[in-house]
Amino acid sequence: MADERPDLAWRVIGGLMGLATAWVARKALGFVWVKATGKEPPVDPDSPEVSMGEAIGYAVLMGVGMSVAQIVVNRTAKKRYEAWRSVKQATRAL
Asked: What's the pTM?
């Protein structure tokens, strides 16, 4: 039963980190887009008013950027959670 609680805790932490990561990454990538192109990011890349190159460029930036951000945050959070968990278990053993 005690083994289920850390899994639940990790799911909650992971879910919250995922939401925060997506929000921050989207804002950061939008800022990068504006600095690189001088234009606001397209609201609807599927719109015929957005050029094909711009739509593809934006999709690539967002896809790669979001994936990289989530990998970095997930790995860092998991590493810190595992360290915390091992310290907590060592403390219980005393």
From this structure: 0.72
